[in-house]
Design goal:
The structure is a single chain. By secondary structure, the protein is α/β, with parallel strands linked by helices. It has a domain of about 80 residues. About 35% of the residues lie in helices and about 20% in strands. It is built from 10 helices and 10 strands. The strands form 2 sheets. Strands 6-7-8-3-9-10 form a 6-stranded mixed β-sheet, with helices on both faces. The chain has a 4-stranded antiparallel β-sheet with strand order 2-1-4-5. Strand 1 and strand 2 form a beta hairpin. The radius of gyration is 20 Å and the shape is globular. Bound molecules: adenosine-5'-diphosphate and magnesium ion. The site of adenosine-5'-diphosphate has 11 residues, from strand 2 and helix 2.
Length: about 280
């Protein structure tokens, strides 16, 4: 238990010798599958206590490249807290995280964003008084960030324009490019947010309830978009709509009271009695 305590205490003390990327000594948790090339993001023993309340309690998770992975569970299960831990909005009370085998337990929010772990809708990314096109351009200039001068050359501007049009096309907003963002219907606004997130070239895309507040047509459009953008990257999404999950997600992790209740394909988890009782049963009713 001393090892565990040291590891937990060492999590945010980079000077501490008790945790290093490959230290077997400081590894009280089971090892991740992240040596497999297809595992983009791994968590082991991920935990978060608020005061004494275990909001997230020993969660293990592997998100694979090219897959759309859903995090589901009843309200209060800990889904948003897991998201906040993965994106470093919160510090874990215990547990470890890896990105393609690299230990990112102590990495900062900025570090992991640079690595390409990007949460959509985190940036409040839409400028309502700009056009759709201007919004995407601005988002594309963001990764260049401090290299502001870079955008002054003609070839850089041409590249920027080309990528802007590609992204508009990718999310189906080409015909809307001269509209003010404010004038877009809700579903297209979410598509624009997705475009501004894709501008950051995410390798792992985290989506917290991408279809929230949508109905009918908008849901199928967003589902199609997510499937499209998952090619060549990993997507982890919190989703309440189980038909979206069934349709879109090939891996599902069910949380209940901060713990993993079940994990697997939609068929696996929908035939699990505990899951039906805790979650799906409720929903069917
Ligand atoms: P979900 O997203 O699955 O609905 P959350 O991750 O938002 O669940 O919350 C999990 C539990 O942790 C809930 O009981 C919630 O009240 C609690 N919780 C979340 N954030 C905080 C916080 N900042 N302080 C105290 N308790 C919190
Ligand atoms: Mg939530």
């Amino acid at each position: 238990m001393i090892l565990l305590e040291n590891a937990v205490r060492g999590i945010y003390a980079p000077d501490s010798a008790s945790i290093t990327s490959n230290s077997p000594v400081g590894s009280p948790f089971s090892e991740p599958l992240s040596e497999k090339p297809s595992v983009a993001l791994s968590a082991r023993g991920l935990s978060k206590r608020f005061n004494d309340f275990p909001a997230v309690d020993g969660v293990d998770l592997d998100v694979h490249d090219g897959s759309v992975h859903a995090l589901i569970g009843p309200n209060g299960a800990g889904k948003t807290t897991v998201f906040n831990l993965l994106t470093k909005f919160l510090r874990p009370s215990a547990g470890r995280l890896w990105f393609r085998g690299q230990d990112i337990t102590t990495a900062s929010a900025v570090d992991i964003a640079r690595m390409g772990i990007v949460r959509s809708f985190q940036i409040s990314s839409i400028f309502s008084s700009m056009t759709v096109l201007e919004n995407v351009r601005v988002a594309l200039q963001r990764p260049a960030g401090l290299a502001h001068q870079f955008w002054k050359s003609d070839s850089a501007m041409a590249q920027l324009d080309q990528r802007t049009f590609e992204l508009l096309d990718e999310v189906g907003l080409d015909q809307w490019k001269f509209e003010l963002a404010d004038q877009l219907p809700y579903g297209r606004k979410r598509a624009l947010e997705l475009a501004t997130t894709l501008a950051l070239e995410p390798r792992i895309l985290l989506l917290d309830e991408p279809t929230a507040g949508m109905a009918g047509e908008d849901i199928s459009t967003m589902t199609r978009l997510i499937r499209k953008v998952s090619a060549g990257r990993a997507v982890l999404m919190v989703e309440h709509n189980l038909s979206v999950v069934a349709d879109l997600c090939d891996h599902i992790t069910v949380l209940q009271r901060g713990k993993v209740l079940a994990a697997g394909t939609y068929e696996d988890i929908s035939s699990n009695t505990e899951v039906r009782r805790a979650y799906i049963g409720d929903d069917d009713a």
